[in-house]
Amino acid sequence: MSTDISPPSIETAAIEWREGVPCSTRFDDVYFSRDDGLEEARHVFIRHNRLAERFARVPAGGSFAIAETGFGTGLNFLAAWQTWEASGPADNACLHFISAERYPLDREDLRQALSLWPELGDYAAQLLDQYPPPVQGAHRLVLAAGRIRLTLFFGDVLEAWRELDFHADAWFLDGFAPAKNPDMWEQAAITALRRHSRPGTTMATFTAVGEVRRLLTNAGFTMRKTPGFGRKLEMMAGELPRVPEAGGHESPTAPHSIAIIGAGVAGSLLARNLAQRGVEVTLIDRAADAGMAASGNCQGALYVKLGVEFNDQAKLGLSSLLFSQRYYAQSGDHCWHPTGLIQLAYSDTEAVRQARFIARNDYPQAVLRPIDATEASRLAGIPVNSDGLWFPLSGWLEPGRLCRSLVRHSRIRHCFGFDVHRLTPCNGRWHIAGNGEQDVVADRVVICAGHLTPELIPLRSEFRFRTIRGQVSHLPEPSLNNPAVVLCGPGYINPAHKGTALTGATFDLHDHSPALSVESHRENLSMLASMVPSVFSGPAMQLDPALLEGKVAFRCTTHDYQPVAGPLTDPAGRTLEGIDLFTGLGSKGLTYAPLLAEYLADRITGQPQCLPASLARRVATQRCHRRDASASETIGA
What we know:
Blueprint: E1 15-18, E2 21-24, E3 29-30, H1 37-47, H2 51-55, E4 63-69, H3 75-87, E5 94-101, H4 107-114, H5 121-130, E6 137-143, E7 148-154, H6 157-163, E8 168-173, H7 187-195, E9 197-205, H8 210-218, E10 222-227, E11 234-239, E12 257-261, H9 265-276, E13 280-285, E14 300-302, H10 312-331, E15 336-337, E16 341-344, H11 348-360, E17 369-371, H12 373-380, E18 388-391, E19 395-397, H13 399-406, E20 412-416, E21 422-426, E22 429-433, E23 440-442, E24 444-447, H14 453-456, E25 465-476, E26 486-488, E27 492-493, E28 500-504, H15 518-531, E29 549-558, E30 564-569, E31 575-583, H16 589-605, H17 613-618
Parallel strand pairs: 4-5, 4-8, 5-7, 8-9, 12-13, 12-24, 13-20, 16-26, 24-31
Antiparallel strand pairs: 1-2, 2-3, 6-7, 9-11, 10-11, 14-19, 15-19, 16-18, 17-18, 21-22, 22-23, 25-28, 25-29, 26-27, 27-28, 30-31
């Protein structure tokens, strides 16, 4: 297999089947025992980490984290998942499984390998359904309605442990034998392993090599040899000793109560995510229901414009896109329409940009691929004059409907019609005052209020947020040659739904009027006629802008057009206790919000984080303070 692969793709495993067992041609070693790979996983990793009994003790709303060196076929993961389900963990408990893999199997090799174990068929089917394309970096898979969270890092193990934020309760030291793959067992890897462990963390490994035992012992683990499996006479197991005062299950716990201000896509996704983890949520919005403001459009496209350079900004966009595609396919109910999406090379400048993008990046075709105007026309079902980029797993959503579906949960208390005026810290809790209403009191608060966020931040400090008006136009279906896919350029057009197709949106920097504008409708029609002339069944200007319906919303963007998600800090970098921001998503909220809601929920509940450190820095609140801001203070403190 060629190794001439550019980011963001990653080289997949070279597999050869010998006697019905997958073997790596790169390392000349088997992925699991020829005797019985599943029973080997249970013997080495499940029993020697005492997982069945420890899983049963995880409390309601708690979590347990297993970290693994070498995902391989995923057999160890599925064995742990099966044991978790059989152990009967408490309500809303979550098993996190974090695994690094430098050479991931492609989907077909993974399917063939796991087909050897019919008793794992249901688990394997869920894994295969969400298994990510071979793209570098961290991938979070949410399985079994949130009871299982798999963080797969495709890349070098040392990079994985440097980038990921977690503490393991148990380690599966897998991977090929030390003699075959020495890099995975070097001193730096063992040091990183110790850094990601807490007192009482256990580990097991199939190897009994003396040098590995010495390294683990020097790192502080108490190691012992024990009988191996099958033809392996010995293996090793060990534990990081507890400090004398430590005891019981040590996973951090979530706050008892949390208030989320703003019931748009960001707030609704976060509320649902936390509720599924057992957290009691109060969702506050001044509107009468969820998804009524900027998230209230009847249609919204799922896309992100990936940069020519594969830098952290492009990585965040790609990670968000892949996660959102998986999330909506799994949890979008009837709100998700996976039609596919074409980003058109609508101008000479954009055509040059897309040509540079393709030349400098190697994306798997499951993510995107370049297409010419002929193929674009075939996919769209109408004549298209431009080449473009085809995103087969994208599409469009009904955002308002999605929000209202998300917030219907027994642990989400609705506090609608509540116009927040002030947030005040008092005795370790936050008091949220409204317009004559009784205060809402919570242990923690997250501000998800879009362009209204700066008014609510309880700091005397200036933030680099911008409000941009956007108006969409509702086009009657009879006036259109309806495209079968989403078409994007300087704006976008969705396939018609229930007699209407949405197009837009304008970017009005200096207009702050909430009223529909005939001029904005005219701008949207002109944009669409230029981008895809064939979309109109007659001359575009035969549509009277004064008769069109639409919606005005106000986007919140940041100075660097990157979203904000995380603890609120002051200009000096000090974190305010118990308050987070989740805003600045601009026009790409449908793409960014699912992954960032997952990240914030990880942080709030103290569970392993889905975002690597480099991307967490991209969304940190600290960067949004004005550089000349003086020392600030908490209002009302």
